[in-house]
Amino acid sequence: MLSALVRALFVLTIPLSAVTVWATESRAVLVGGYIFPPYVIEEAPERYSGATLELIELLNQSQNTFHFEFISIAAHSRQHTWRNERYDVILFESPHWQWHQEDIGFTQPFAVDRDLYIALAEPGRDQTVFNAIDELRIIGTRGYHYGFAGYVTDEAALQERFQITFAPTLEATLNMLERGRGDLTLINESYIRVLSAQGRIDQSHLISEKADHTYELGIGVRPGQGLAIEWFEEQVNRLFEQGDLSELAQRWGLNLLFDHE
Hints:
Blueprint: H1 2-24, E1 27-33, E2 41-44, E3 47-49, H2 51-62, E4 66-72, H3 78-83, E5 89-93, E6 105-106, E7 111-120, E8 137-141, H4 155-161, E9 163-167, H5 170-178, E10 184-188, H6 189-197, E11 205-221, H7 229-241, H8 244-252, E12 255-256
């Protein structure tokens, strides 16, 4: 009689245990990111680092409702990839970068960055060199949005209006500049801080005091997938209050909007 009761209790506990595991299992959510230092840096093929990867890790550590996984996308086709539902979240993104026709919602911005012009320092060259963009040979990064270009990313259309060539990465634009392939390039201020700390950008480079454009960055979220914008805002606020987000920003040269309140 006792052994039968034990067997019955054992059988009953199996489905209860399974239900418990199922109920606490995190839902996998794909986070798209394109090469955009210091947010996403390609260290090697299929190996990435940067502020986006660290924020994903912080989000995974701070809750167990979702498990966020990074997926690499291309900057110039990020909207097309979004429409094909390859990913459901994008971090450190501006809603003004051609997202107005997409089914996407954005959190309140929590970081701010800006693109600065960079030329080679030469005797007699000063900030006035940046006053005649239309007359200079520009090196841009494929898929990036620029204020001087009206945020258009179509390369053929831009080449009709400007003397512009394109490179796949910010590092490549800097290399082309140093080889004399153009007169100036554009790099975001946060990455300039990183490159300056590494000695990659130094006194041989002239950095503009004025910005091409300034942009506020938040989190883009696909509606109707159980992902609430308010939930992400709560997570970001909590990470800031705990100091984790500030530490991340310091490592990667970011400006948080919390700091300007």
